[in-house]
Structures are given as C-alpha cells and as structure tokens.
Design brief:
Length: 101
C-alpha cells in the first residue's frame, strides 16, 4: 500500500474519532448530523484513497459503535456503520467513474 493511502486512512480515522467524541458528549443530541458527517468524511476519504472502501468505512464509522458498545452497552449504535459504508462505496464509485473517462 502506498504512502498516500496510509495517510488517507489516518485522515479518516482521526475524523472518525473526532465525530465519535462529539457524538458522545452529553450536550450533543443530534445523531442526524453525526451520521451525515460520517457519510461525508467516508465519501471524501474513499474518493481520495481510490481503493479498499470497506477499510475507509471502518476507519471513519467504527468509532461511534465502539464507544457505544464499550461505554454505554448500546448495541444499536452498530447502525451508525451504515452511513460510513454508504459514503465510502459512493466515494469509491464516483472516483472510478471519473477516472474511466
């Protein structure tokens, strides 16, 4: 794997951790914005990575359910993986479409 791919995964992980931290704050009560941010960041990161969208989806989206399961025993937080998967595969697909021409 190339250096730029590793940096993209690092970028995705840092933003995923930041989104999870904001989402875990007691004063934060807007899951829709958190889900949209996961979708947006994973889409951008997968577009930049150009491969392995599943890894990008996990790098961005795994932090919210990880926190939810460990600290709140909230297994419903696994649903937050969906925006990451949708975003990553959409970004990867857009990159493939644009580079084919």
């Amino acid at each position: 794997m190339g250096k730029s791919f590793n940096l993209t995964v690092l970028f995705a992980s840092i933003f995923g951790i930041a989104i999870a931290w904001i989402d875990s704050q007691p004063s934060w009560d807007d899951s829709g914005i958190s889900a949209f941010m996961v979708l947006l960041v994973s889409m951008l990161a997968a577009y930049m990575a150009k491969r392995k969208p599943w890894l990008i989806a996990l790098a961005v989206g795994a932090w919210i359910p990880l926190y939810g399961i460990i600290f709140a025993q909230n297994f419903g937080s696994l649903l937050s993986l969906l925006p990451g998967i949708i975003g990553a595969y959409t970004g990867w697909w857009i990159e493939r479409i644009l580079t084919e021409k």
